[in-house]
Each structure stands twice: as structure tokens, then as C-alpha cells.
Amino acid sequence: MMIYLDNAAGSHPKPHRVVTAMAEALSKYGANPGRGNHEMTRKTADMVQNVREKFADFFGVGDSTRVIFTAGATMSLNMAIYGCLHKGEALLLPGMEHNAISRPVAALEDAGTINVQTLIAAPDGYIDLNAIRRACTSWPRPTLLALTQGSNVCGSVAPLDEIGEFCQKTGVLLLVDAAQSAGLIPLSMKKTPISLLALAGHKALYGPPGTGVLIVGEEVLLSPLILGGTGNKSEERNQPDYYPDRLEAGSLNVPGIAGLGAALDFVKEIGIEELYGKTMTLTNRLTEMAANISGIDVYVPNQPKPRLPVLALNIVKHDPAEASALLDSRFGIAIRSGYHCAPAAHRALGTMEEGCLRFSPGWFNTQKEIEKAGIALAKLAR
Questions:
Q1: End-to-end distance of the chain based on CA atoms, in angstroms?
Q2: CA-wise closest residue to 9 among 379, 243, 375, 358
């Protein structure tokens, strides 16, 4: 029986209600929402709107039309970065970014479109708030700060409230990558000044892969990344200028959206505090076991700081890829090894040479599985 500890890559298993909602959508909501005026397309459009409103309510958005369905956090982040930056403007990276941010930014920089300032995070993966303050008030002042709220490598959590307030005062747009944190840490655009919020459906929100959301703040007007059919204003030459149609060209992933709505119901029913509490209890136990094993380097802060349920480590005697393969073949434990699509984080942690192992418990893991993982680490280290 596999012990799945790779929930930071994608949560598994999915709640039964998610599977049921997606299967039902294939027959019940088979039409294309917004295309036509027959009964099924109206019912499909109503279902999509219902999920849109659920997300608006959950993340503190006053206008549900600014909840945009995407193919995942990567698409959401690309839409935000390409949509709000213009030639000659500057962007600030705090230093713990996923490639979903780093690569589109690099493409714009290489094309000579934007200027980029990249900070270096601390060796424990936490960003320097004072360095961000200095960068936001220096010349050229950034138009956009692209912030990863929770690291997918070591679980460090950025001080979002402080950064949001500072960006609001200085007029810097704040893009938050909440791919890892949404579903574990409370997020409200009513309480925290966030300009753009990118969400992944398949991680701690327990939704299906290939689903995501971009929430666009009221002060932001994004240029569309993809142009095409919207079902409305089809006679017009240009993309509609209103949300969500402005950013939702093409057919929506109706079964995925149905599953995403069911997943959000699951998260709301259990509650973020309970989801975070259980997964952090499991992570802390595994961290404690690993830290007491000779020959294992654990990458966690030396003092209590906000963290996500992610544990990064290396076994001194084993290359991470080799260790991951051995955990799978000998012990049936599924984890992630390598660079986790986040070289910026590894530069901060000092693990750029070979990356590291990442354990990420989820809601459906058990204490017994964690104990088995700790024992497996001890055996490999010996």
C-alpha cells in the first residue's frame, strides 16, 4: 500500500464528493456555458456561476465576476504577469519564487520589456521584509511585486499582511502566488490589500488537476493573455472589456469547475484551522524524527516561524533522486526530489548542487504512515 507524501505537488486522494461532482458534470452539465439558450446550457452556466460565487465568498471578493477560472496557478500567474506589465516597467521578486513566476518574468526581461530586481531570501527560506520595503521605495519603483506566500520547497510563509499594507501605501501592485497556501492559511482580499491572487485547485484545496483561479482586484485592469470566443459580444472585433469574459476566452473546463466547487465545500466543511492543524502535526512529527537521525540534514528554521506542512531534507549518503527512488521501491513511500520547479528557493537554502527531498503530508495521511516514513529515513541514513 502506497504512502503518499507528495501533497505539495498535488493532493491525493481526492475527496469522494469531488470525484462524484466531476462524473455527474459530464452527463448533467454537458453543454457549453454561455453558448446558446437551451436548458442544459443555462443549467451549466448556473453551476459555473455558483462555483464562482463560492470562491468570491471564501476569498473575500465583493465582485464575483473578477473570479477567473484557469487551467491552474501557472496559467493564473502568467495571465497576471503578462496582463499588467508594460514596456519599461519594473518588477520585484523577493527570492522564493516558483518557475511559474520566474520563467515568464525572465522571458519579459530577456525581451527587454521590463526591468527585474531579485532579492535573496534568508538561508532558512524566509524573505527579508526590510529589503522589500527598501526595494519598493527605490528607483525604479516596481509596478508589481510577485510574492510566493508559502514556499513549495521548505514551507516558509511570507508576512502577507505587512507586505500588502506596504504595497498599498507605495502604490505597488501585489501579485500573490497562493498555490501552496490556499486551503491552509486564511486569505481574504477584503482584509489584506492584494491586487491579484493566483490559486491552484489541485493542492491544498483538494480539487482536480488542471484547475485554478485568478482573482483580479478592483483596481487592476488586465490585458487578456488568450483571445477568442466568449459566447457574448461575438459580433464585435475585439475581446470584451468586462470580466470574466475579458480573461475567459474559449470553452471552460466544466467538469473541473464542478469538482473544484465540491472541493471548496470539503475545505469549508472541515475548516482551514483543522486542515492546517492536522497536517502540521504530522509534519512536525516527521521533522522531529528526521532531526534526530544522524546523517540527515533538515532544512527548517531555528526559531518558531509560520510554516506550511512541508519538510525539506537530504540524506548525506544518498543523492536525492536515488533516495526518492529507494523510498518508493523499498518502502512504498511517494515523495518529491530535485529542485521542485523553484531554483530561487534552493539558492536561498544552499541546496542548488543537487536539490533535496520533500515530504508533504495531507489530510488523508495518518500518524502510522508518518512513523513508517521516519523509520524508512533512519534505515536509508544507516
A1: 24
A2: 358
Cβ-contact 94, 127 below 8 angstroms? yes
Report which of 215, 198, 162 is spatially closest to residue 73, judged by C-alpha positions.
Answer: 198
What φ, ψ does residue 280 adopt, rounded to 5°? -75, -35
List Cβ neighbours of 137 (8 Å cut-off, separation of 6 or more).
Answer: 170
**Cis previous bond, 304, omega within 30:** no
Cα(195)–Cα(99) distance, rounded to whole angstroms? 20
Bond before 140 cis per omega within 30 degrees? yes
Query: How far, in Å, are 147, 152, 172, 174, 185 from residue 89 at the CA level?
Result: 17, 28, 11, 14, 31
pLDDT tens digit sequence for 88-120: 999 999 999 999 999 999 999 999 999 999 999
Torsion of CA 224, 178, 9, 366, to 10 degrees: -150
DSSP string over 101-119: HHHHHHHHHHTTS-EEEE-
Residue 37: pLDDT over 90 = no
Question: Binning pLDDT at 50, 70 and 90, where does residue 231 land?
Answer: confident
